[in-house]
Specification:
With about 90 residues, this protein is of the alpha+beta class. The protein has one domain. It is built from 3 helices and 3 strands, in the order αβββαα. Strands 1-2-3 form a 3-stranded antiparallel beta sheet. Strand 1 and strand 2 form a beta hairpin. The chain is globular and about 35 Å long.
Length: about 90
């Protein structure tokens, strides 16, 4: 995985990394390019966590995978059960 991810790819990947919870991922048009994540429990409407990843972390597939795994580990430490997840492979 040595290709650079586009922001849309990073958004889709992040959106699936926190199932069964819902992840809202976005970048601000006039911002610094950071990817913002909010993980929500749809059953209770509670925000479980928020994270922000700099563009340098989400444009590199390995760095994105590591950052998402770190956020997932934090949720697990707080008692939330996530479905198994692996970083998808992209053919560029």
């Amino acid at each position: 995985m040595d290709a650079t991810l586009r922001v849309n790819e990073a958004l889709l990947i992040a959106g699936h990394a926190f199932e069964p919870f819902h992840c809202v991922a976005w970048t601000q048009q006039d911002g610094d390019g950071a990817l913002s994540l909010t993980v929500i429990d749809d059953h209770t409407s509670n925000n479980l966590c928020r994270a922000q990843l700099p563009a340098s972390a989400y444009s590199d597939p390995q760095k994105l995978a590591s950052a998402l795994e770190e956020v997932r580990a934090g949720l697990s430490r707080h008692g939330y059960s996530l479905q198994p997840w692996t970083m998808p492979a992209f053919a560029h």
